[in-house]
Fold each of these.
Amino acid sequence: MITLRFDNSFVRELPGDPETGAHRRQVRAALYSRTHPTPVPAPRLVAYSPEVATFLGFSPEDLADPSFAQVFGGNALLEGMEPYAANYGGHQFGNWAGQLGDGRAITLGEILDARGERWELQLKGAGPTPYSRGADGRAVLRSSIREFLCSEAMHHLGVPTTRALSLVATGEPVMRDMFYDGHPRPEPGAVVCRVAPSFIRFGSFELPAARGDTALLSQLVDFTIRRDFPELLDGTDVTEQVRSEFFGQVCERTARMIAHWMRVGFVHGVMNTDNMSVLGLTIDYGPYGWIDDFDPDWTPNTTDADQRRYRFGNQPRIALWNLNRLANALVPVFDSLEPLRAGLERYLAAFDQANRAGIAGKLGLAEGRDEDVALMQALHALLQAAEVDMSIFFRELAEVDPRVPNLDPLRAAFYDPEKMKRAEPEFNDWLARYAARLRSDPASPGERRARMRAANPRYVLRNYLAQEAIDRAEQGDDAGILELREILRRPYEDQPGRERFAMRRPDWARNRAGCSMLSCSS
Ligand code: AMP
Ligand code: MG
């Protein structure tokens, strides 16, 4: 196996828990606990990401070597790995939840790749840590497949995200009560190795702040800036000015991430502050889902079915709420509140800008104007009322000449032919409005089409597609995972022969668990 170049700055520079072992505890004055992965009986490499493996420096021989599954299943450490579980808190569903921490994630170390870029390797499902609370520290195959496929799919869609190196089946059953109805059953277990420059979360700052540990908070802020935002440093000191810019950057990155989610129809499902990356990466894939029929009120997360706090259309607001929690946590390291207020304003401005860019792309316009936001809102209302598939509609809209009002080319996007017939006059009015707007856009029809095809994916990880791959894998057939991984590497290209993967959600999947409803049980 290759020798990776480790540079474990987090454990080197920050204070850790003096206690060892995975017994559950409150960990104060420390940002992590050294914890080893718990070995599994039969680690088997199910899938990997070729791109991630390549930039980390793994050769095909490394991937084929049985030791790869041993390491990334949690049974062995490579020279230079210093595993730990991070300590952080968070607001869950709007309430302060206190200490949470990596209950089933264990960071193996930080490596520097050939270009000198830093990547933290983290196993998810690697066994108990001091932060596992009442749970087992494991992950089931179904949720691991979902994390592996979705994080890679998001990357190829151009959405900021953590990546996934590998998916390893453990050969060990995990007990889960999938519906929380008192019927736990054994499910196959798995470990994903996820990869990001940093896994520091909003909640990483909230915990020391909530405990009044300003020294620790300040140390973490400085560390994060130096390691993850070095471009902000002008000289060696982390000044108030640099901290202000740091918070502003977090706000802007978060805004851009959310605008991408809205563009592609992704619903995170658990936007708790412990699941918000300070780098503005999509992180912690759990009961997420993809919009089939356009519905801003939809949430995939059954745990959130009543409140719908994390519904599709609420994500921009929730991100701002979360940034407010982060701002509150950072108050002690600022001399005045002004930079924090200014950062939150930057969220609004950056979201507006990124959202307009998203709208412009989706409609094939050179720029997104005020009137285009209204034009898109009007379309959203129609899509929702007529039960129209978001991905298919926008993709096919590129092929429509709006000067010739005719819904037929968009037929494949409608779930209900009756609703389509009833909505036809309104859609035709909207197409006329769109045609009028296009007349004031300098782009040629060819340019419009090219823009739209670059902003509106043909292939997304529809909930039922992931579930089909899971069903097959649970029967011992991994081919469905590999097929989706391949398709989702080129989401903006039409892939002849793979039309099935771009179709409307079939009827059988409308109300099936895993396809339209997911629980946090994973
Ligand atoms: P999540 O909603 O998946 O981000 O998880 C919230 C918190 O619960 C985090 O602190 C997780 O580490 C922890 N957690 C979730 N599932 C498990 C598990 N199976 N074992 C231990 N901790 C878990
Ligand atoms: Mg989490």
Note: The first strand starts at residue 32 and ends at 34.
Amino acid sequence: MFLLIALALGVALVVALQKLRDYRRAIRGLAQSVTGKQPFLREDQPAKLGSDWDRLCAEIGTLITENTHLHQLRSSHLAQLEATLGSLQEAVLIVNDSNQIILANRALQAIFPRAPNILKQRLELVLHSREFLTYVEAVRTSRAAAQQELEFVEGIHSTWVEVTGALIPPLDGGKGAWILFVLHDITKQKKLEGVRKDFVANVSHELRTPLTMIKGYVETLVDGHRDMPLADRERFLTTIQRHTDRLNSLLDDLLALSRLESINPGLRRESCDLSHLVAGLIDDFRGRPSAVDHHLDFSIDPAIGRLLIDPLKITQVFENLIENALKYTPKGSHIEISARLREHEVEASVRDNGPGIPAEDLPHIFERFYRVEKGRSREKGGTGLGLSIVKHIVQLHGGRVWVESTLGQGTAFFFSIPVRSSA
Ligand code: ADP
């Protein structure tokens, strides 16, 4: 009897242990399915664990399936969003509630090429701008302006963007709102704005000086011309004339420059013999009072032949360069104009043996209104626009300009234009 009971207990224990092992294995399997380590398959679950266990498995199975579905839906939403935003011209950036970058389209990467692999990174580590982070906070607390202009500085590079931010519901089902930013690159406009402001300021300044002088002298003449000695009156009138001439040249140069910069700069190419053009120009200069104390020479390589250029504009290039050489070199200086063929280009130069230009001024010499010695240039009737006009004309011909100069030895201005020979 005792033996029977012991045997029955032993069998019951073995069955219970077996069941326990089955439960543990089943629970382990469920746990792995819940954490996504293996798919949930009902067939994998032991069949003999009872109806309660079956119900539990069925519920968990449904939950896992729903969860997987939601997961897929969210990923596909994000993928759809990425695809849609990727093709947009506007740069788009989405960050989550802890400023982690969730999405950045192609246009955004084009604005910030120096910030690669920005996905999943924190905003502040990628886009360095304190103002931007302040703006992000303002968007989060709904205090932000509709649009804001911001500057991002990366070493020597500066990028200006116009940014609009809006709160959006989190696509990961979390609680904290995400932010969608639309950014517009306005660096070019900002630069142009700066150039325009500088230009207007420079023009106003250039106009004001002669106008103030003219006004002053005219007022003195109006008030006192009756008792004024004739010599003084003549001196005053000559000064007025000089400043009027200056105003005139300034307006001429401004008009020339604005025409050259317009959509239709009016380049009229025609077949032209460069050597003939330069010879005529030198003849003309030799007859001018400003050139009588200088030595003017020229040498044009006969191999150049006829070129397709705008003769009036190229004449203006040579004129501006020769006039500068005459203005900025002392009496008795030598000025040499030459041109030679170099592969597919004609390279021309105007060289003088004057005082030269300091090295620090050379990179700016072709900028509008840039002068090495402001007083001296004005005194010589310079507008500060001559070399700018030269550069524009040469560029219109598809060429380039440059300068070489050594203090105390002289200056050489070069320009080269691609050969477009005419038959
Ligand atoms: P500007 O009307 O003042 O002559 P430009 O644009 O023609 O204006 O020239 C810019 C500046 O470059 C001049 O003000 C002058 O200081 C300098 N420069 C130009 N040519 C020479 C030269 N041959 N030798 C020395 N300085 C020169």
Note: The chain has eleven helices and twelve strands.
